[in-house]
Design a protein that fits this description.
It is built from six helices and five strands; from the N terminus they run H-E-H-E-E-H-H-H-E-E-H. The chain has helices at 3-10, 23-33, 53-63, 72-75, 89-99, 118-142; strands at residues 16-17, 37-40, 49-52, 103-108, 111-117. Strands 1-2-3 form a three-stranded mixed β-sheet. A hairpin with a 2-residue loop joins strand 4 and strand 5 (111-117).
Length: 143
Amino acid sequence: MNVKTILARKGYDVITIAPDRTVAEAVRQLELCNVGALVVSEDGYSLAGILSERDVIRGLATTGPAILSPTVEALMSRDVFVCTRRDSVDALFAMMTDRRVRHLPVVEHGIVVGIISIGDVVKYRVDSLAEEAEALRDYILHA
């Protein structure tokens, strides 16, 4: 299975924020949209970076409440690991585990077309295992 399958179930919505917005605005957007990361984009399509809850917490730990005043650009992660719709779920799981990231923007031809969280990957794996177990039960009962 691949990323396209997960996106078909969860949707292609991507919450973005411009790099010139304040971190305080980003925190409000994270809360309002109930997400753990925002794709940073000038135009809503291209990828400039990502701002996660983890980035905000690290900023608070080093700077304190003043971290809410600078722009998102000052705090965002610029070196973003990405995936495509063709990538396998197993490859995503390995990448997220190895690189210790929780969110992967799905990028194709330079355009952000979705975002996958570790929760999406785990949910997909659990659902797949449940479907497989049900198929095995049906096979055993009707064999």
